[in-house]
Design brief:
The chain is an alpha/beta fold. The protein starts with 5 loop residues before the first strand and ends in a 19-residue tail after the last strand. 28% of the residues lie in helices and 24% in strands. Strand 14 and strand 15 form a beta hairpin. The chain folds into two domains: 6-35 and 291-416, Lyase, Ornithine Decarboxylase, Chain A, domain 1; 53-284, Alanine racemase (TIM Barrel). It is built from eleven helices and 21 strands. The chain is globular. Helix 2 (36-51) packs parallel to helix 9, helix 7 (179-188) packs across helix 8 and helix 8 packs parallel to helix 9. Bound molecules: ligand LLP. Its EC number is 4.1.1.20. It catalyses: meso-2,6-diaminopimelate + H(+) = L-lysine + CO2. GO terms for molecular function: diaminopimelate decarboxylase activity; pyridoxal phosphate binding. Residues 44-288 form the Orn/DAP/Arg decarboxylase 2 N-terminal domain. It comes from Methanobrevibacter oralis.
Length: 427
């Protein structure tokens, strides 16, 4: 099994050298627990796999996966760059010490004010439409400004329809067919286009779509190089590398994956006589997904028409199961050796029937006050959480070599309304 699960000698879940039960005692539930060393290992494994075959390689962490400041600081210290999709992500990255040239901004449907903000912060703009290009030319001085374009490589893949970002149904990027024209227009407007970007989707464990996307993106880049005279400083193939969520899924063989894709990249560079641009990749999930668990407490066990294990978190805490029907492996953190005895539904505390973490899940006997660990919660977990049902946001704890530090306080009730204003006539 390729899931990241460790057990200590008390038969409790071990998270980066810390005991899950001790964490619950100190910080309560629900709490996201992040393993610092796992993030560092994931980053280095990823970086080393590709840079071994192509040294001019950079990793841009897709921080939409997890913008916890400690997580981003860890990746900053490793030398990682940032893929940002909103002015807020640019702001956070700058505040943490990422310089503008380490931030690639890939927004879609962004306003003039947002374009101007990102430009003024020094981030590199990856433009998603001709509309944005023309508007940008009016609000900044285009002369010599280095920009990039996102293209739709007409290849799409992902763990769910919502997570496929290439192909005819996708709102992202410019069409390959118009690329020469768009890069030429950018030049005419005074810009210096130096990059091309594509991203086909998220949660992909099959290497095949990546190959097709590299091929297609490079064919577009080659044409743009030859026909619009663009010398590429970088080509960015986006993110999307999946991680195993179920016990049957296997980790991608990253070394082989890198070897094959870099060979293809080099072949295409040669075919189109494109020199040696830097290769960028933008992993989000791969770097942080398996580095966190969500610890929750069992508060009720109900025998109804089905058996429900009720916990003190819900889709406001971790949306993926409700939104994408995503599988997250769940273990009893305080009795890791307990044998499987039953099939149950694991339900959250939101007032909606769809608020389930698992349906028909094989589990051991579970009792009130047991601690469940919902695994692989590090990517698109906390960042997609909300205050729905007026539930305060969970706390986050970072484990470093076995030592626990609170890195986000649990919200208080006051946080639920402190930005609201009651007009005077209602006071
Ligand atoms: N680059 C771009 C332009 C992206 O849009 C994304 C993800 C990534 C990189 C990183 O993809 P990753 O390596 O993490 O797969 N909420 C969904 C995932 C949405 C991904 C959106 N874009 C989920 O929980 O599965």
């Amino acid at each position: 099994m390729d899931l990241n699960i460790k057990v200590n000698d008390k038969n409790h879940l071990d998270i980066g050298g810390a005991d899950a039960c001790d964490i619950v005692e100190e910080f309560g539930t629900p709490t996201y627990v992040i393993d610092e060393n796992r993030i560092r290992d994931n980053y280095n494994r990823f970086y080393n796999a590709f840079s071994k075959y192509y040294p001019d390689f950079k990793v841009f962490y897709a921080c939409k996966a997890n913008t916890n400041l400690a997580v981003m600081k860890i990746l900053e210290s490793e030398g990682c760059c940032i893929d940002a999709v909103s002015p807020g992500e640019v702001h956070i990255s700058k505040m943490l010490g990422f310089s503008g040239d380490r931030i690639l901004f890939t927004g879609n449907n962004i306003t003039n004010d947002e374009l101007k903000f990102v430009h003024d912060e020094g981030a590199v703009l990856n433009i998603d439409s001709v509309s944005a290009l023309k508007r940008l030319a009016k609000i900044v001085d285009p002369e010599g400004l280095k920009i990039s374009f996102r293209v739709n490589p007409m290849v799409g893949a992902g763990h769910h329809d919502h997570c496929i970002t290439g192909g005819v149904m996708s709102k992202f990027g410019i069409m390959g067919l118009e690329a020469v024209e768009v890069y030429s227009l950018a030049k005419k407007l005074g810009f210096t286009p130096v990059g091309m970007h594509s991203h086909i989707g998220s949660g992909i464990l099959d290497p095949e779509p990546f190959k097709l996307a590299i091929e297609s993106t490079m064919d577009i880049a080659g044409k743009v190089h030859q026909e619009a005279g663009i010398d590429f400083e970088f080509v960015d193939f986006g993110g999307g590398v999946g991680i195993p969520y179920t016990p049957d899924e296997k980790l991608l063989d990253l070394d082989k994956f890198a070897e094959i894709n870099i060979a293809l990249f080099k072949e295409k560079l040669e075919e189109f006589d494109m020199a040696t641009p830097t290769m960028y990749l933008e992993p989000g999930r791969y770097l942080v997904g398996d580095a966190s668990v969500l610890l929750v407490s069992v508060n009720s066990v109900k025998e109804s028409y089905r058996k429900f294990i009720g916990v003190d978190a819900g889709f406001h805490t971790l949306l993926r199961p409700a939104m994408y029907d995503s599988y997250h492996h769940i273990v009893v953190a305080n009795r890791m050796d307990a044998p499987i005895t039953q099939k149950v539904d694991i339900a959250g505390n939101v007032c909606e029937s769809g608020d389930l973490f698992a349906r028909d899940r094989l589990m051991p006997d579970v009792e009130e006050n047991d601690v469940l660990a919902i695994l692989n919660a590090g990517a698109y977990g906390f960042t997609m959480s909300s205050n729905y049902n007026s539930r305060p946001l969970a706390s986050e704890v970072l484990i470093t070599d076995g030592e626990a530090n609170l890195v986000r306080e649990r919200e208080r009730f006051e946080d639920l309304y402190d930005k609201q204003i009651i007009p005077s006539h209602l006071k």
